[in-house]
Structure formats: C-alpha cells, structure tokens
Amino acid sequence: MPGDPIAVAMSGGVDSSTAAALLRRQGREVIGLTMQLWNQRRLPELQTGDGGSRRCCMLDDVYDARHIAQTLGIPYFVVNLERHFEDRVVRPFVEEYLQGRTPIPCTLCNCAIKFDQFLELAAAHGAERMATGHYARIRRDPTTGRYLLLRGLDAGKDQSYFLFGLTQAQLARTEFPIGELTKKEVRRLAGETGLPIAHKGESQEICFVPPAGYGAFIDAYLREQGMAAPGGDGEIVTTNGRVIGGHGGVHRYTVGQRKGLGVAAGEPLYVIATEPASRRVVVGRRDDLLRREFTVRSVNWFPFEELRAPVRAAAKIRNKHEAAPATVSPLDAERVEVLFDEPQRAVTPGQAAVFYDGDVVVGGGWIE
Predict the structure, then answer these.
(1) Pairing mode, if any, of strands 270-275 and 280-284?
(2) Which of 121, 238, 250, 263 is deepest in the core (most CB within 10 A)?
(3) Alpha carbon distances (Å) from 192 to 106, 180, 196, 266
(4) Which residues are catalytic?
(5) What is residue 25's three-state secondary structure?
(6) What letter would DSSP give residue 203?
(7) Nearest to 31 by CA among 2, 63, 13, 7
(8) Burial class for 207, CB neighbours closer than 10 Å (0-12, 13-18, 19+)
(9) Which domains, from first to last, does the chain contain?
(10) Which residues of the chain have pLDDT under 70?
C-alpha cells in the first residue's frame, strides 16, 4: 500500500490540501484530481452578485487546487463530471423537494460521485486508492474483516453523518488522512507545509444553489428544462386545518422551518409537514414537531451485512442534531423502525438517520 499511487480529491480547500500534503510527507506517490461538477454560469438570472457564504467547488477553488498541487510537486488533473453530477445529484435534489422531502445533496454527491465515479477516475490515472479531506476515520474489524466508519477525532468537524452510504468496497480503497486531527491542527500543518490556503475560509453552502436559495433554484432549473413546477400556489394551514395564508409552492418549505412563512401569528409557527398532493403546507407550534417513532429506508450497515434483531444506538437525524438514544428494529432487508427514548424535534422525510455506537457508525439510511 505505501508504494501504491493514491489519488486525492482536491477541492482547493485547506482540508483536502493538507490531506495531500500529509500523504506526500509519508513518501506516498500522490495524484491530485479536482472534479468539475457544476457550471456556475448556468441559471444566470439567479446570480445576484452577492456571494453570501462560500460555496464549495467554485472556479477560484480549482485555481487554488492547481496551485497547491504545484506547491507539493504532484501531477494534477481536472476531471469533468457535470453530467453525472446533474443526473445523480441535482435532478434527485429537485425531485425530492417536489415530492415534499428535504434531500441532502452532499450525501448524494459522496455516494454517487466522490466515492463512485472518482474511484473509477483514480484507477484510470493509475491509482487504486483515493483520499479525501473528510473528518472521519476508517478501521478494519480484525474479527469480521469488515471495514468500519468512525467519527472524526474533531467532534465539531466530524463528517461521518454524510458518509453513511459508503460500501465495503469503497472503504477498502479509501483513506481519510486528517481524520485523526482537529481543524486547528490541520490549519497549523498547512501553514508549516507552506500551503497558501492555510487560513482560507470554510465552504458552507450547496455548490449548485446560488444565494437566491433552493426554492428559486428549483423554479429556475425547471424553467431551463422546459418543465413547470407541479401544483403551484396552495394554502398554509394549521394542524387543525384552519387556513391562515397562502404560498407559491410546497417545494419552498421544509419541516422545521420557521422563517419566511409569510403568515402573521401571535406565536412562532413552524412547518410541520408539506403535502404536495393537496398543495398544503401545515404549520404548528414547536411541540408539534416532536416525534419518537419513524421508519428509515435503504439502510447501509458497517459492522454487519444485515440487521437481524433490534439494537440500541444513538440516532442522529440531522448533521447538527445531537445523536439521541434509540432502539433500531428491522422491518425487512432494507428498512428499519426507529424509536427514540425521548421525542426529538423535526424528524424530516428525505434527511438521513445515522446510527452510532460510540464513535462507530453502525449504519444509516433515508428517513421516510
């Protein structure tokens, strides 16, 4: 393994750049690859000139990645995956919102692009292994021989939630060089190595959604594709069915949303559910968001191939959600039922539920 070439997914940020630098320091033969995923000049009507928060995969990031590769003295290539990205990330993102669910495009990108298409591209460039700048860790269970996914050492930066879909074959060929480091240590190492992006800001937003927001993006994307958003205007109703306002499309709302509802009330209101068929957005009080029980589909397991009996785990239903104690019970080969010990807020269809045993990711899937 140490003598084999390894391809690093270089985003132009400090994390992937430091990952490449650490591998070079170990004497590894490193190849830098940057994925061109989305044409930032598409949908120009949404480009307001207000950059807002940094988005990943911008054109400046490609320049930074190329510069880092030159600094490290490694071969570097930009690979165009725009068609795959649109087919497997952007379109599913739009379709999920139109069906009343809230997708996680970063997880879709990890599963369908970064750890799928990228591995094929790495092999085409002579590298059978790949590395990324994710804050996560990989271990192999000496008893079962299965690869395990663990949280990153830096709890505040841990990205294991977005990686729950990785297969055993993908984990076998993947390395996370900064998984044992904190963000502070990563920036320090970047500075010591002479990388010019040591203090570069974080990327916060979805790469293909402009500052105008995801609702405006969906409308513009559908227009570009010659399609109309199904349904259109509808009613905003309370949990008891009382109409209190109107809206311009259910795809502009997500469970747990408080701001931008466009209705006046004597107390804070939250989106409880979206109903595309009836074009209704249901709102209610904060306590109306609490749920104990839900189902999860397309579950991927790490310590074992299939869940055969109920297990106790800490279940995480959003990236920023603090994993809470729950019982996870099998319903069939791909679906489980999750029962929290205590009700949790905003269990959102389309989001991921990821199950932990300490630092080990037991498995994860999509909330129904």
Answers:
(1) antiparallel
(2) 250
(3) 30, 18, 10, 55
(4) 109, 207
(5) helix
(6) P
(7) 7
(8) buried
(9) 6-133+177-193 (3.40.50.620), 231-284 (2.30.30.280), 291-367 (2.40.30.10)
(10) 1-3, 48-58, 204-205, 231
Assess contact for 129 and 174: CB atoms under 8 A.
yes
**Number of neighbours of residue 65 by Cβ within 10 angstroms:** 25
User: What phi and psi values does residue 138 have, to the nearest 5 degrees?
Assistant: -125, 135
Fill in the amino acid letter for 4. Answer: D
Residue 113's Cα: distance from chain center in Å? 12
DSSP assigned state of 322: P
């405006």: which residue's tokens?
216
At 259, the amino acid letter reads K
Considering only CA atoms, which of 161, 156, 148 is closest in space to residue 181? Answer: 156
Residue that has been written with the tokens 């940020």 in this structure: 13
Using a cut of 0.70, tell me whether the model's pTM lies above it.
yes
Question: What pLDDT, on a 0 to 100 scale, did the predictor assign at position 231?
Answer: 66
Report the amino acid identity of residue 150. Answer: L
